[in-house]
Amino acid sequence: MEVQERRTYTAVIGLEFHVHLATTTKMFCGCRVTYGEPPNTHTCPVCLGHPGALPVTNEKAVELGVMAGLALNCDVAERVVFARKNYFYPDLPKGYQISQYDEPICTGGHLDVLTSEGRIRVGITRLHLEEDAAKNVHVGTSGRMHGSVGSLIDFNRGGTPLMEIVTEPDIPSPEAARATANQLKEILRAVGVSEADMEKGQLRCDANVSIRNPDGSFGTKTELKNMNSFRFVERGLVRELERQREILESGGRVEQTTLHYDPETDEVHELRSKEYAHDYRYFPEPDLLPLELSPAYVRELGAQLPELPDQMLARFTRQYGLSEYDAGVLTADRDLAAFYEAVAAEVDPKQASNWISGDLRALLNETGMDISDSRVTPGHMIELIELVGSGKVSRSAARTVLGKVFETGDSPSAVVEREGLASVGSDELSGVVDEAISANPDEAERVRNGDKKVVGFLVGQVMKATRGNADGGRVRELLMEKLGS
Ligand SMILES: [Zn+2]
Description:
Blueprint (H helix, E strand, L loop, with lengths): L10 E10 L38 H13 L3 E2 L2 E2 L1 E5 L9 E5 L5 E10 L2 E14 L3 E5 L10 E5 L6 E7 L6 H18 L11 E9 L10 E6 L2 H20 L8 E5 L4 E6 L10 E2 L6 E2 L2 H9 L5 H12 L3 H8 L2 H11 L4 H19 L10 H12 L5 H14 L3 H8 L6 H14 L1 H8 L6 H11 L6 H11 L3
Parallel strand pairs: 12-13
Antiparallel strand pairs: 1-10, 1-11, 2-6, 3-16, 4-5, 4-15, 6-7, 7-10, 8-9, 11-12, 13-14
Helix pairs in contact: 2-3, 5-6, 6-8, 7-8, 7-9, 9-10, 12-14, 12-15, 14-15
This protein binds zinc ion (ZN).
């Protein structure tokens, strides 16, 4: 009899990012880098590929490339050669893209990523500089090439400084891929290399994905292209892994292919049935000298690096006594981290962490907002934590207060006043506790006889009577006192 072998599937994911660098001008000419301006208003003979126009390397782009590499723990090359990547497409007027090939600016780094299953280290294979292509605008209802009546080209984007970052296939799950993309974005923003706004197309992400064979070897990988939000990176990978798993389970073979994730249908579609290795006929760019990056130059740029997310995480655990997990949650978003620090400077840092990484973040997640869009200010948070600390508002009522502050932007004390959420005073509370005892004589008797389990019921009765405006711990204490237990 054949024994069905139980197969376990392990995902193997590598990511490739294209990042617009935060320079004011383009990679090889003086045209301004712009977003959302009228088409073809920022062009010149260089970025339009006129014959005889000569490129000049943008020094700031090189600086940002080096700083990004250092922030990602890469080795910076002493000599960097630009190369021509030849291919024909309407968005590429020269017929080649200036890129870097076998002598990229940075290699061999890593970034550490906090996932729900712990910390993982994702290797960085390489980082190189290149220029972006122009933008094709497909005329028609869908906005895609398919079904459009014509294509227009906007050369404003052509020549925008671009950094390509390729990771090792070290990422074990779609969730970890999303966390990796997010961590990379935070690092790039911290260093000031890029705003890395996915909606503006400043950060684009492709993924290579396969399922490890039972013998441990790599399976056939497919490429998932152009995912334009962190959520879609995760969703697209989930769908693609499901697709590969179904193929393998039905005894089929995964074909090497390029796919596109459609968020509207939550499905992956094949773009090309077979991905041939393109022959780009790379050769060194004869119009540009190799870059010579001296160790002193690299050291100088390294000294300008600000505190990176990892370092901030370590500092949060040290300075505020937070767990690595809480510090990771707070430092995963630079704006949230700044909000936290403003609050933690005034009140107990652990309380601040509980409220911000717990309740406030839950409200942000529910509404899909960032902290910068939120009406809650650090001042509100400090006031709320002080109201709880002084016993003026119970912990549970304070949650309601935060919800209202989040909705209206009113101060916590104004909300407490308006909604009648102040804690019941101690004399009044004592009376409510007495009432609860006399209204539930059997339960009270059981507590007197040492049955502590029933106390919770009586606490519940008191909380109900005060509409939650009492401190549960204090109520329990009072009950125990009065029942001599
Ligand atoms: Zn130009």
